[in-house]
Known about the structure:
With about 130 residues, the chain is an all-alpha fold. The chain has two domains: about 15-45; about 50-125, no CATH class. The protein is about 60% helix and about 0% strand. Helix 2 packs antiparallel against helix 3 and helix 4 (about 90-100) runs antiparallel to helix 5 (about 115-125). The termini are far apart.
Amino acid sequence: MLENxxxxxxxxxxxxxxxxxxxxxxxxxxxxxxxxxxxxxxxRPKKKATKYELAKKYLKNLPLxxxxxxxxxxxxxxxxxxxxxxxxEDEFVAxxxxxxxxxxxxxxxxxxxxxxxxxxxxxxxxx
Length: 127
């Protein structure tokens, strides 16, 4: 039985060249660089909404039927001016001039339905 055994070989020294260490450091640096890019991408600040976008959102959700007439006049003027598209400035100014009768006074008349419809249409189509 001992005759069938093969002789044990001696340990062979594996020598690594300088190139192998260079490649290992290069791969390690690549993984660290990729990891930092991923972390920076995930932690970047979210884009904040601009005044224009906030005004558009507010106008689209403006409760025209639930607001008092004076509040409607002021809020439509304020947020409409912020969300104004220069192409539709003439139409906005026309509505704004009609709303001036409902601002700056202690007692105001009721806003007629035609003006409310103009405001609704302006918000629906132009904003």
